[in-house]
Structure formats: C-alpha cells, structure tokens
Amino acid sequence: MFWHLVIDLDAVPEPLTSEHAEQDLILIGLIAMIDPERPEVAAAVAEAHSAGIRPIMITGDHRDTAQAIARRLGILSPDGDDDDQVITGAELDAISDADFEKRVANYSVYARVAPEHKVRIVNAWQKQGKVVAMTGDGVNDAPALKAADIGVGMGITGTEVSKGASDMVLADDNFSTIVVAVEEGRKVFSNIQKALQYLLSANIGEVLTLFVMTLLGWQILAPVQILWINLVTDTFPAIALGLEPGEPDIMKRKPRGRSSNFFSGGVFGNVLYQGLLEGLITLSVYGIGLAFPVHQSAELAHADALTMAFATLGLIQLFHAFNSKTIHQSIFKVGLFRNRALNWAILAAFLLLAATIVVPGFNTVFHLTPLSGSQWGTVLGAGVVMIAIVEIVKWCQRRLLK
C-alpha cells in the first residue's frame, strides 16, 4: 500500500527543506493505492497445504505488510504466533547458517530480503531433505532460481535472465497454476505406476505359467498363443491406463520425496504377488480342465484344458486391468467404469481373445478348441477371483498404512 502527500505552494521556499515547506498545511484528502492478491490464491494455498506442500512467502515489502497478506492467504500457520513465523532480511543476517538450518521450518514469511537471502533460504530447505521450487521474475532472483530443485520463472513479468535460469516458465504468472501443475504431475506419475504394475505382473504370470507347465511335463501354451495374449492384453489396456483420470484423493497425499521411484509405494510388492497370483490361478484352471473333462478322449480333454488355460491367462489380465486403476484404493471407490478408454480397450481385447476360441478356422490357427458353457463359467470365475483377492489385499494394505 502506498501513501502520497501533495503540497500546493505559491513559490519554491528557500531553502528547500521539509521544515520550511511543511508549514501551515491544510489536509484536503488522502490517496492510497493497493496491489491486492489474486482472489484464487487463498484456495490454491489451502490445496497446497492439503497436498503436503508448504508455500513460503519471500518479499521485499515491509514486515507488517507481508505478515498481513500472508495471514489473509493462509500462509501463516494458525497453530503458531504470527510474529514468530515472520523474519526480515536484517534478522536473517544475524543468524548463522547452521542455526538457520535448524530453525528454517519455523519461518513462513521473509520480508525485506536481498538476493543472497533467497539462496540461503533455498539451501537451508534442501539440507532438510526437501524438494524446493522457487518462483521469481527479476534478475536478482536468478541465483535462487538456479539453486532450487525446480526454478519457476514468470512468463509475463519475468526478465529473460530469470527465465533462462529457470527449469520451467509459468505462462500466466499465477500461483494457482502451479498447484494445478502439481496435480497433473501426480496423475501422470500415478498412471505410469499403474501401467507398469499391470504389464509386469501380467508378464510374471505368463512366465510362471509356462515354467510350471514345463516343470510338470504338461502340454504348454504355444508361442503363437503367448504372442496373441501379449498383443491383445498388453497393448490396448496398458495405453488406456495412461488415460486414467486422477484419483479423488490425489491432492491429499504426502509428497513422494527424493528417493521415490516408479516402484515405490508398494508397487514392487504388488507386481510380485499379483504376477504369482495370475500364474497360480491359470494353472489351477488348467488342472480343473484336466480333472473334469467334457470329452472322454484324452487328446480332446488336454486340448480343452489348454484352451481354458489360454482363455484364463488372457481374460484374467483384462480383469486385472480394472484392479490396476488404483494402487491401494478399492476400484469400486474410484469408479469401475469411469475411464471410457479403458472400458473400450478391455471390450475390444476380450472380443479379439474370444474370437480365437469361438470362430471356426481362427481357432485352428491358434490350436484351440471351442469351450462349453461350464468351461467358460470356470474361466470367468477365475477373473472374478482375481479381482476379489486383490481387493482383499488392498484392504489389508490400507489398514496397515493407517
């Protein structure tokens, strides 16, 4: 906020000093100008807090001005004293680096700061193991933008120097856009995890099935059958999982941290047990086909059992695509059919898979035989069992995480 004093004089006083000029004044009015914060910023700050992101205000404004704005935006913690959360550049100079690193989490607002102070703030947070994003628009912001893990330059008001020192440029200079970008980034990361979990668990299931069949001397799936399963089940559903909408609680999760990767958060364990589960269910269906044959001929009974194993291995992966819509949450909570691309992908993959069994001539090419109604029921039941077991495991995981 700026205040302006206007004096109307008949002549320039001599000497030109405030003591001579400011005499016999009459107040005729006051003019004040304010540069208010954007109305959407407060909501964006609140969402950032819920996502485990801590916004810090660094400004050249007066301490009281910065504190008042930070209070309105919700940057200051309601649990602490406002004065204790605000520090000026002069006060920061009086603190050693070692002491500041211990106390940096206490401060949410920095007022009257110089460029070197910004670098100290970034370095202090990084030594706490935090991932730091720094915004700036001026030439003096360049060192801090370069030092931060993610430097964000302003696209409208930013200088070319600040943009060049940044890792990304904010096109609309709006803090709420950063929060939206965080949400989109979390969704993309989560979808990559889902696709990896789906693909790797499916491949482990196939490897386990072939390994055990060979070990037990059973008739194994032909290469053309495995290739068809990979082509049908790996392509369409995996791509569609990349289009999965963000989960409702995605902005309520804690940040992943520096050491995270695509297998973090239980994904690696899920890949292992789900792959083993797919293989065991497929082998169980093969055993059921041999134990309860529809045909009396041993040759036809083995052909039916192999066809059931083929159908189960393919269909169970399509059912598992629904499981992969979320890592830990129930698929019934996030919306079973919310992703239309996945729905169409699974339907198309199922039709292509079923065609190799029911279409005359086509099944001959793949060395398969038509299945009876009871056999199809066993195959579909295997898919339902896959979903049920994974849902139970997810429930247990959520209980353990709590």
Largest sheet: 3 strands, parallel
**Count of the domains:** 2
Mean pLDDT: 89
Alpha-carbon distance between the termini? Answer: 47 Å
Order of helices and strands: EHEHEHEHHEHEHEHEHHHHHHHH
CATH superfamily of the largest domain: Calcium-transporting ATPase, transmembrane domain
CATH architectural grouping of the largest domain: Up-down Bundle
* H/I helix tally: 16
Shape: elongated
- The total of beta strands comes to 8
Helix content: 55-70%
Spatial ordering of strands, largest sheet? 3-5-4
- The assigned structural class equals mainly alpha
* CATH-defined fold name of the largest domain: Calcium-transporting ATPase, transmembrane domain
Residue share in β-strands: 5-15%
The CATH class of the largest domain: Mainly Alpha
Report the C-alpha radius of gyration, rounded.
32 Å
Low-pLDDT stretches: none
Topology:
Elements: E1 2-4, H1 18-21, E2 31-33, H2 41-50, E3 57-58, H3 63-73, E4 86-88, H4 89-93, H5 97-103, E5 109-111, H6 115-126, E6 133-136, H7 142-147, E7 150-154, H8 160-165, E8 168-170, H9 175-216, H10 223-241, H11 267-291, H12 298-323, H13 331-334, H14 340-358, H15 362-365, H16 373-401
Parallel strand pairs: 3-5, 4-5, 6-7, 7-8
Antiparallel strand pairs: 1-2
Helix pairs in contact: 5-6, 9-10, 9-11, 9-12, 10-12, 10-14, 11-12, 11-16, 12-14, 12-16
Description:
The mean pLDDT is 89. The two termini are 47 Å apart. 57% of the residues lie in helices and 6% in strands. With 402 residues, it is mainly α. The longest helix has 42 residues.
